[in-house]
Amino acid sequence: MALLQTWQRMRSNPIHEKRWQQFKRNRRGFWSLWIFSGLFLLSLLGELWVNDKPIMISYQEQWYFPIIQDVPENKLGGDFDISTDYHDAYMVEQIEKEGWILWPLIPFYYDSINYELTESAPSAPNHINYLGTDDQGRDVIARLVYGFRISVFFALALTLCSSLIGVFVGAVNGYYGGRIDLFGQRLLEIWEGLPMLFMLIILASFVEPTFLWLLGLMILFSWPGLVGIVRAEFLRGRNLEYVKAARALGVSDNQIMFRHILPNALIATLTFMPYLFTGALTTLTSLDFLGFGLPLGSASLGEMVAQGKNNLHAPWLATSAFISLSTILVLLVFIGEAVRDAFDPRKIL
Amino acid sequence: MSLDNAGLPLLKVQDLSVSFAQLKVVECLNFELQRGKTLALVGESGSGKSVTALSILQLLPYPHAHHEQGEIYLSGQAVVGKGDKVLQAIRGNKVSMIFQEPMTSLNPLHTIKKQIAEALLLHKGLTGKPATKRIIELLELVGLDNAESRLSSYPHELSGGQRQRVMIAMALANEPELLIADEPTTALDVTIQKQILELLKSLQKRLNMGILLITHDLHIVRNFADDVVVMCDGRQIEYNKTESLFTTPQQSYTKKLLSSEPQGQMPALQRHDLILSAENINVSFPLSKNFWGKVTSKLYAVKNAGLQVHQGETVAIVGESGAGKSTLAQAVLQLNDSEGKVVYLGQRIDQLKNSAMRRIRSSLQIVFQDPFASLSPRMSVHEIVAEGLRVHSAMDETQIELEVQRVLAKVGLDKNSGKRYPHEFSGGQRQRISIARALILKPKLIVLDEPTSALDRTIQKQILELLIDLQKEFSLSYIFISHDLSVVRAVSHRVVVMQAGKIIEQGLTSEIFGHAQEKYTQILLSSAAL
Asked: What digits encode the pLDDT tens for the residues B469-492?
């Protein structure tokens, strides 16, 4: 409810309305946003169309939904009380005797191995695996879809968290200035001097890298990116006349920072964000490529690139990885450009 | 000049119109200027004065801008729509222009010599020794002292007045027949203003130039111009001899403009209840520090200044730019780092902690000079005005809503303006919003930091009247900072004169304006021609 109100208030502000119009004027960025959102939505619904479990089974006049429920074998004509393996030809035969199966568009999950390959893995594209399989016999499309999803999630979380920290630190540094700023900036310089990749590699050898671990480690090193611009905005902002006027009204420091200066700094932050996002995505990909990224077996674009490199005789691996990665990055850069245009005061109509 | 056009007027503007795309900004303008005479274009901001001046040199962004009708003749030669070759021979040679802001109209990366030499090279082909000689001549002509040693100075090494002199020297480099001066003294202090105008006048006599003076300042027009064109919204309202325009204005708009000069004086205070006093205020900035960070020398922006304000009284602080007027006022409100004792209603406020000071802030308010910078562009008027209430009172939303509407009505704004954003308002309306923001907390003292200097005269008059009415109604005290002495005389009870951070004279307004003791005050008053 509160969110809806904020949205309505933002739309009613003519400045925001103008920015949105300016964003839309950059047709390339506008369409990129739609395409990217569409792709992301598709990947969010991945379980419905890329899955090794059938969407629906009708067996003996009864309906089952294997995607959301675990159906034991013996209910579907099998012998044991264990989870059904829907890729077992015997089970499929049993079910289709007294019913039917509705398969997803791509009947593989990112970790399901196709045991019925006619050639050795990696196998070339055919009518079952449309983009072929990787060197462990897993479907390439399935891995791309889930790899894309996890990369975007990761980049989103990383961008949001590091922006929050970066904006906070930059705001405090810039607003109070003086000694706080002096020490803060020196600390930041030392922190930024640490070689991030090596630190990650060293840390990855201590702990088993899970999604959250990796996110935490990356946040540690990526938040300083925004501090500089936010600090500059606050240094400028604290001397603006309307900020002085607020101080003369007796408004507290926190309120001044939040209500009067932050909106100025947010423009710089929002302009920067798409590029942070792109950066986060590439960092995750490169870590995965080097083998220090997400745990073994998880879907990831970086691992696909690594496989492409290791299997030069199977060009479908490298090609799919390359095309999908470059498409995502190009879309993001276009969106970033449009956002930058939208916040450019010289381009406001 | 050849003889055959000697009888023609130097500049003749006939039925001139200027449009930007579909928007008409100047309509049907007619005037003439003879050699050796001065014509003033007078009007408020946005009345089309500068556009007219620029169209004489054909410097508007054509073809986006265009002239639907009309013609401009320079000594009989038509210039509208002429090619670049013809125009470049006119620009800077026959006609020169000086601009308002001497800092931005000089290239900061070039020396004085180089800037003037460029004009000489372009039109006269002068280089080397003769050029240098001519430049020194010009600089001496415009009264720049030590002309020879200034040749290699950069603009930032000169003061505002000196820069304007260099600008004039550049304009005169090719002995133009017509000098267009677009608000030549607006950015300068009054004493410098007077020197520059006198310089222009003497140069005009010596070189027999025509001067087209663009200004909003009626004082200057009266003392300086032979003829006046009054403009409003791009239309020519009145065109007359200066003398007859000032004595018998024909049009109602001219009358309104003339009567917008601040007039009258404040009645004497009946009671003297001291509400605020400040003693020995010092504000300094460190100039150099030693190795351990200890300050070894300081620049005093304000030194040993003291100030008393009584209830219902307006204390004006006057002085030139850089005199420390705003710094002193902000020090009194504890808005900057300062030393010295400030007592408000018997309580020392200079040593209070932030949280304790915050409670007192509601009764000490400030209105800033620039109505565009002092309102947050991202907050609606309602949010801006209500902010103080949210900090200092426990009112609920409906009460705040009512209170905001009441205050907006008090300052003469529509009560529905709350939903709108600052950029939808004009300068004067914005200044009303600033006043409403200060007023809603029912303050005892408001610091008015040049509240009207960014506004046109007629708007200025309205705002001053509003301030005086509010003072009567709520017996407010004002600290009124201004460089405009005519305004100060009209609104203040007492005057404090500052020079270079020190208070050099203070007294009742009538005393100061009647018989000032200090030499500096006398100079200020005579420059303002009061």
From this structure: 999 999 899 999 988 888 898 899
Q: Do A241 and B379 touch (CB under 8 A)?
A: no
The Cα of A347 is separated from the nearest Cα of chain B by a number of Å equal to 17
| Residue in chain A lying closest to B357 (CA) | A250
Which of B358, B374, B437 comes nearest A252 by C-beta? B358
Shared domain for A96 and A155, answered yes or no, is no
SS (H, E, C) B269-316: CCCCCEEEEEEEEEEEEEEEECCCCCEEEEEEEEEEEEEEEECCCEEE
Q: Is A112 a member of any domain? A: no
CB contact under 8 A, A240 and B373: yes
A151 shares its domain with A178: yes
Please judge whether B368 and A260 are an interchain contact, meaning their C-beta atoms are less than 8 angstroms apart: no
Which candidate in B344, B367, B374, B481 is best for mutational testing of the A interface (most A CBs within 10 A)? B374
Selected residue of B326, B387, B444 to mutate for chain A interface (largest A Cβ count, 10 A): B387
For residue B63, whether the previous peptide bond is cis, meaning omega lies within 30 degrees of 0, is yes
* Per-position b or e across A76-93, b if 16+ CB within 10 A of its CB: bbbeeeeebebbeeebbe
Lowest mean pLDDT among A86-90, A267-271, B89-93, B186-190: B186-190
Contacts of B360 (CB under 8 A, 6+ apart): A250, B344, B347, B349, B352
Q: Is the pLDDT of residue A107 over 50?
A: yes
User: Tell me: the pLDDT tens digits for A52-71?
Assistant: 888 888 888 888 888 888 88
Which residues in chain B show pLDDT less than 50? 1-4
Size of chain A, expressed as the number of residues it contains: 349
Do A187 and A148 share a structural domain?
yes
One domain, residues A33 and A65: no
The phi, psi pair for A144, rounded to 5°, reads -65, -45
- Range of A159's domain? 16-47+141-342
Domain membership of residue A66 (yes or no) is yes
Contact A130, A49 (CB under 8 A): no
